[in-house]
Amino acid sequence: MLGAAFPAAGVAFASQNSEAAQAKKADTIDARDREFLTLIRFANLWEIPMGKMATERGTTQAVKDAGQTMLNDHTKLNTVVKQLADKYGVQLPDKPTSSQQGWIAEISGKQGRDFDKTFADRLRAAHGTVFGVVAEERAGTRNDVMRDFATQANTIVLRHMTLLEKTGYVSADHGEFAEASARSAAYPENQLGSSDLLVGGVIFLVVGFGTVLGVRTLSARGAAK
Q1: How many domains are there within the chain?
Q2: Which residues contact 63 (CB under 8 A, 6 or more apart)?
Q3: Which residues of 8-36 are buried (b: 16+ CB within 10 A; e: fewer)?
Q4: Residue 129: CB partners within 8 Å, gap ≥ 6?
Q5: Which of 49, 79, 118, 170 has a Cα at 20 to 30 A from 20?
Q6: Using CA atoms, how far apart are residues 213 and 222, in angstroms rounded to an integer?
Q7: Is residue 41 part of a domain?
Q8: Which range marks the domain in which residue 109 is found?
């Protein structure tokens, strides 16, 4: 009614409502966003010390460079994660997962070329898994702040994977493909079950029978003429 009587006031009122809605949207995150912040925090907790260790123990400049970049980038990511967690009231973990602790112990127990290879393999596999989750967050979040953060994380994870691959120590059987294949196997839509194969077989037989029948009918008509 106010908008109809006073158009200018109506526009201003609608604008204020839109701005309020946008502000509320920026201050709200869902379960996916919270999980994403936790995941990046877990990654920081073990990749920061591993990056530092690579700068100290790496036997090639490529390994040292990968470690230094990871150390710098994850330190920055950690600062942003803490800020976002404070903003949205997310409680972050304070130590790596049990699996990550196992990888830390495994890498720490290596020396020389064995260290380089284990470091590159484990970190490339881990980044491969995180990369898919970052993409899902970037595509699915409804929060503009989280989308910007996911975009930043996407760039960083891709850079780390590339640097780890350039070390020449990433194994095709483990570091580069193992995590990706494990992730694909977890999704039913990426697998064909027996029922899928049965349906496909029936469709094939029906199409084949129809084709043969059609050819015979056309041949019979041709002969009759």
Answers
A1: 2
A2: 54, 116, 119, 120, 167, 169
A3: eeeeeeeeeeeeeeeeeeeeebeeebbeb
A4: 179, 180, 182, 183
A5: 79
A6: 14
A7: yes
A8: 30-190
